[in-house]
Amino acid sequence: MSEPTFDDIFDELIDPNEELQSFLMSLDALLPEALLLLVSDAGTLFEGVRPLVLSPSLREQLVRQAKGIDGFVAGKMDNGGGCHAVYLVKLSAVLIISCAAAPAEDWRPDSSITTLLHNTLDLALYRQEREMLVAEHEQSVRQISILQQQHGKLVEDNFRQYRLNQEREKEYARKLESEIAKQTAELREANVRLEEISRLKSDFLANMSHELRTPMNAIIGFSELLTETSLTEEQYDYTRTITQSATSLLTLINDILDLAKIEAGKLELERLPFDLAEVIGNVAAMFKIPAREKGVSVTSRIDSRIPKKIMGDSNRLRQILINLVGNAMKFTERGGIDIQVDYEREAAGRIVSRFSVRDSGIGIPPDRVEAIFEKFTQADGSTTRKYGGTGLGLAICLQLVELMGGHLAVASEVGKGSTFYFVIPLEEASAEAISLKEHKGTGRVKGATGGRILLVEDNAVNQRLAGILITREGYEIEVASDGAESLEHLQSQSFDLVLMDVQMPNMDGMEATRRIRAIEADPLQRQNYVGLRARKEPLVIVGLTAHARKEDELACYEAGMNGFLTKPIIKAKLAMILSEMMPRLSCLEHKDPS
Ligand code: ADP
Questions:
Q1: In angstroms, what is the span from residue 459 Cα to ligand 1's centroid?
Q2: Do 318 and 450 sit in the same domain of this protein?
Q3: Looking at residues 530-555, what average pLDDT do you find?
Q4: Is residue 243 a part of any domain in this protein?
């Protein structure tokens, strides 16, 4: 069933016929004797309960006359009776009422009767109006109730729609959440895979470095030894070439490994006190001979406001400077190279300093300035042919400088020279840090030679090479082929220092070191080891490995080693570490009386 509209409701309210009908009913009740007839302006007839029958001509006459005057007119009916007619302006209709007898010809309505009639009519009209008002009120009540119903329905509809939207939103959020969870899981999985790949990559690099460095060790070591034997000039030249080529190959291997380490975010800078002037002096000294050969000067200067002792990674700083000065040397034929460290300002307790390496060499074309900092890129195609190099040096320097909190840049002019510079914050080393470092060195005498060394090494070539280098440094040597064998040696002999290879079959260097430390800590076991029982200090063990990663170094220390030497064994490095690590007292003083 369709709902009623507002128009329907108002149509009902203004029905004129109903209005006339209800007036007649009121009058019927007020005048129970009278016969009534109502003629609307439209000509419609409405009869009372007791209808008044009139001839149409008399009716029309009465209607016409009543409309013409303000008051009652009289008429005579066919049956001899009389009637009165009056125009009701409010209802737009003429009312005709019967009366008992026909009035005389000259009848004029009596004022008291007409007043009575008027009052009756007014009362009927009033009643009729009241009924209409009651009807209107009922309509309004109905209308309000319909509106209320509609409003209720609207609220209900809205609420239903709201619930529906809420459900949809929840469903959407659920879908979204599960989608996000799915994608997060996928990302996590991809991340794990990437980490695994990165780990495999760095393991691969570490292994490669081991595999590459071990033979390099032999090539460089033996060719160095060979140059010291009696050779013809030609043989000497060949041997020097082998040494130089192997050394540059080793540099390349180290560069590639460095870059891989930096890119994997695995390169960590050391924070140890060092003497800045010593580092700069060393670098300048390294290039003195090639500079003299070329007729080029090398000078260096450090601003006096820069502290002498700095906290940081001296090896990496040296590496950057060697690279920059090495390049300057390579590309400069006359004039000079100047290394400078200038004071810029102080910020947050650090001395912001500018390192620059200036040369009077060939310079770099402006359009190549950016490219030279990229990996494997040189200023022009002929560089490799003319000067050698791989284009890795500056890429590594750039990354190292950035790790130190600075930026590497160059100002250059073709034919005039170049200045490579970087600005980094330097931290002054505290007295505490300096004394701690110096304290670590106690018990060792720099430059001391003599003493017994146990070399634990499985590779026969390396045994021979290390053996020759160690004896040349003035030490006595004993060789063990693996960790187990080194323990056997320690049961019957005393040593001042053990050079312990890390990777060995049977028992590796880490395990052997851990066992030695465990024996030292156990008085009962120690009694069975001649090499350990009489010692006042723990036996010095220096790791020997082709792995050059920081984590390998840390692993050596964790196993209980005191030092770390990377292969290939370079003569100078070996001499330095042996003299640094060799205990002050000769082993003879610890020798067991048995
Ligand atoms: P490499 O020297 O092994 O080629 P680098 O990354 O150290 O690699 O240098 C990249 C290139 O930048 C060099 O090949 C050279 O073309 C240019 N370059 C670097 N330093 C200088 C310099 N001091 N003078 C002129 N050119 C230079």
A1: 38
A2: no
A3: 82
A4: no
* CATH code of 571's domain: 3.40.50.2300
Q: Which of 254, 394, 416 to mutate to test the pocket of ligand 1 (most atoms within 8 A of CB)?
A: 394
Tell how far the Cα of 378 is from the centroid of ligand 1, in angstroms.
Answer: 6
CB 443 within 8 A of CB 548: no
Domain that holds residue 411: 272-438
Measured by CA distance, the residue closest to atom 23 of ligand 1 is 328
Can you spell out the DSSP letters for 292-332? HHHT-EEEEEE-TTS-SEEEE-HHHHHHHHHHHHHHHHHT-
Among 252, 256, 372, 414, residue to substitute to test ligand 1 (most atoms within 8 Å of Cβ): 372
> Do both 37 and 120 map to the same domain?
yes
Residues 385 and 409 in one domain: yes
Cis (ω within 30 of 0) for the bond into 307? no
The token pair that represents 242 in the structure block:
């082998």
- pLDDT at 445 exceeding the cut of 60: no
pLDDT of 226-275, one tens digit each? 887 888 988 888 888 888 788 878 877 877 877 777 777 777 888 888 99
Q: How confident is the model over 525-540, as a mean pLDDT?
A: 86
